[in-house]
Amino acid sequence: MPETGTAPVNGIRYTGLCSPKFRSCLLTLHFYVERTAEAAPVHALLTDLLTSSSAAYPEISALALRLESLYAAEYSAKLSLCGDRAALVFTVSWLDDRYALNGEKITDAVLELVLGCLLHPNAENGAFRADAFRICRQNLLDDIDCVRNDKREYALQQAAALAYRGEPAAISAHGERAEAEQITAESAYRLWQEILHTAFADIVCVTPEPRPQIRETVLKALSSVRRSAEPPAFCAPSPLKSAPAFASEQMPLEQSKLVLAYKYSGVRREVMAVFCGVLGWISDSLLFENLREKQGLCYYCALQHAVTKQTVFIDTGIDAVQAHAVQDAVREQILAMKNGAFTDDMMERAVLRYEYQTAAATDAPDTAAEMAVIRHRLNDSRSPAEFAAAMRRVTRAELTEAAERLRPDSVFLLRASGGEEAACDAC
Amino acid sequence: MPAEIMHLTDPCTGDVCIRMLHDSGLEIRVMEMPDFSTSYAQFGTRFGSVYRRFRRTETAQEITVPAGTAHYLEHKLFENPDSNVMAAFSSLGASDNAYTSFDRTVYLFHTQRNFYEALQLLTDFVQKPYFTKESVERERSIIAQEIREYLDDPSDQVFFRLMEGLYHAHPVRTDVLGTAESIAAITPELLYQCYEHFYQPQNMVLCCAGNIRAEEVLKIADRCILPKKVPGTELLLPDEPSVPFRTRTRKRMAVGKTQFSIGFKSEPARGMERLRQSLLASLTADLLIGPVSPLYQRLLEEGLINDTLDTDCFSGDGWFAVLAEGESDDPEAVLEALLEEIRRTEQAGIDRVLFETLKRASYGDTLISMNHPESACSAMLDSFIWDGISPFARTEVLAQLHAEDAAACLRERFCADRLCLSVIEPEYPDNP
After folding, report:
1. pLDDT band at residue B101, thresholds of 50, 70 and 90?
2. A248 to chain B: which residues are within 8 Å by CB?
3. Total domain count for chain B?
4. H or E stretch covering A74
């Protein structure tokens, strides 16, 4: 996909992607911030405050109605966690002007609306307006209370908090309720102004055909804010604990969740990509085949790789009495990798999977933009084809060496109450 | 060779769906999207969780199967005595999967390369059932764990308890996966029997979209789709009263805030009428309590709802329900406010400007959603399951809807005496 990129200027990097296959456009703005316990809930709150109303549309339903009138333009924001940093990600997507039934200029209207939300929020006298603030803070408090609703996600969050103890990455996405209750309309507005002036902004726009006016409009609008920011560094490997840690929590559940965290150092990214593929990503990975299909120890067994933290999480849905057996089985599969008990075909399948994922990402505006941002974050100038070629050059010896370097760090068990007590150890 | 080829064209975008009726009886739907990098295939059958009771037309024999049978069969079809199906897809660079819902079971893959080899693999394994006592037994514990996982999912639970409340006897009231007890009765013989009835080309559809050619897909079908003797099968549904089974249902779970789902039960519809009624019901629900509505704004300001509130229309063979779901400390107050808004709108009439705005939004949504091989493939499959309508019917039907239709929908599908409220309340060890 043709890409027009610019070197960062005034703390802004703007990348344009273009493909005639798309019927819609997408603009995404990533503002990078440091993660702290105090700021975390404010960051989460801002993603809501700045997408639900603005000075021009002070009521939530008014902004929603305007978006609907623009052929269901979608404007949303989220907090994206990237190791010790976070990004406030504002994304808007809209139907391309060519498909407007009455010749409306959807693009112009969408840009005006979104830039209005960001630069002219629903605020007065240095504070967000009380009504909108109250509603959004209640949404945030509800989000914090409901963090335990998705048990698998909750277990992974708790495992990350344990693995990254003492690091910014241990802070939960929404922060804690006590801190969220302390946020005021003034403090939230102040932090947003600080972010606008100091946070590095990575902007990606995806369109069906070149649209230089979008770039001009966005950069011109943001240039009204005096900014200074350097592209942040994201790589911050998490130190290995001197002894593996274990934590557990009990809940009234049917199924327990066990998450194992491992850390490594000195392994190239492409080697880890093949390693993770063989161990847990390909459809017949060692973990899936052995833990689920052969031994029936769990319903799911997945692997997540936090590249910037050099940490691997293996999460499973289990019967609590099997916790010990599952840990043993995971250990056995890592040992199998150390002993070279995998095939060349599995290594090739890991590469094919990567190639498919990067190709598939170019088929939708949101994933195409996300891929560009991830490449910027990892500061890896290699194209997907070059990275895949590097993966293909990975040797069996490098994989066994990677397995050797993978060290147990921590274990988190979310235990179903009522079940038998689990025999658990720390890896 | 196909007995019949038809080109269905979307007047809004120029997209073309090539619809072919294969000699075997299989319907094939293809959308050629040459600018895209990836391609998708979905091989589906009209056999889902509501197919609990059916009749062989030639013998009049009635067969009843345990809840969860369609899903169990989906799991077991991946079993192959000669090879590992998933590894075979993976070696081609393709990712495979399958799912079972209320009215269908679908086997699928997506890939950037080797599409036709993967398509051959897909049609091959779906047509070669291999169920043994041992393998069926082994699967039982895996599916039991899957059931337990869903039992911990509050959004799944609030929905299925709502269905239990709305329906007296229709099998839509039972979880797609069944229960630990119901799956205990599933045997290889039963799976073969269901396979024989429902995995017939005449009951199935093959949908492909992406960087592919329809004529190549047809060649694979000619080579791989096996003609079969057709045992006619008729789905038997129980009589279902128009009123709900119960009006309230409550459960306690490990959740942070009370979750609710309000469902309005109404008369089911088929084919194009089902599409028309579904669109109308969705638009009307949004008019009443969607984010653009004055009621939504008021409930937010009063702290009765948060931004999780959503509306949906859920319909199929013998069921039709409009839903409003979200989080609230007082779901009864939300329900009362909604009922009051329904009464007010019935008297004041539908806001025509708002209705036209929502229609335009739905048009935009539809055009964008079809702009990806995966969603195009799913739309073709959906429209086949919905009695074989065109995948592009949505924008045509939408254009013909008027505020008066929404007013009729409001009267017929939002009846206060046909609703159920399902609630999941928080339960924690530290907060009993």
Report:
1. very high
2. none
3. 2
4. strand A74-82
**Mutation choice for B interface testing from A122, A356, A371, A392 by most B CBs within 10 A:** A356
In contact, A280 and A346? CB cutoff 8 Å? no
Contact state of B297 with A151 under an 8 Å Cβ cutoff: no
- What rounded mean pLDDT belongs to chain B? 94
Residue B222 pLDDT > 70: yes
Among A6-15, A86-95, B154-163, B414-423, the least confident range? A6-15
Which residues neighbour B265 within 8 Å (Cβ) at sequence distance 6 or greater? B166, B167, B242, B243, B244, B319, B320, B321, B418, B419, B420
Contact A363 B148 (CB under 8 A): no
The predicted pLDDT at position B428 comes to 62
Residue B332, min C-alpha distance to chain A (Å): 19
Is residue B219 domain-shared with residue B259, that is, in the same domain? Answer: no
Kindly report the pTM of this predicted structure: 0.93
Question: ipTM of the predicted structure?
Answer: 0.91
Closest residue in chain A to residue B363, using alpha carbons only? A71
- The alpha carbon of residue B176 is apart from the nearest alpha carbon of chain A, in Å, by 17
Give A-chain residues touching B290 at CB under 8 angstroms: 64
Residue B240 in domain: no
**Stretch among A182-191, A193-202, B296-305, B423-432 having the lowest mean pLDDT:** B423-432
Average pLDDT in the A273-286 region? 93
B39 CB-near residues (< 8 Å, 6+ apart):
B110, B111, B112, B115, B208, B209, B210, B211, B212, B373
User: What are the strands of the beta sheet with A85-95, ordered from one edge?
Assistant: A3-5, A12-18, A201-207, A24-34, A85-95, A74-82
- The structural domains of chain A, ordered by start, are 3-223 (3.30.830.10), 245-416 (3.30.830.10)
Q: Does B224 lie in the same domain as B302?
A: no
